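Most newcomers find our protein records easier to grasp once they have seen one. To make this concrete, we reproduce a full record directly below:

===
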Amino acid sequence: MLMGVASSGCVLSAVRWAADIDYKLIVLSDCCADRDDEVQRVLMEKIFPGQATVTTSKEFIEAAANK
């Protein structure tokens, strides 16, 4: 599970690296941020879904509680 304060930096690097070594990833979209709102939107809606499951923390907790 990934979250962070620099979606276009640390989170993007971690997603790319982890996907390259075949990790199954979850990015909590509401636990990530970027200075540029448009970059944040593009990463969460277009880039990250190609390599990770993107969900909110609420959806993640609800899914975990139902297992």
Summary: The longest strand covers residues 26-32. The first helix runs from residue 7 to 20.
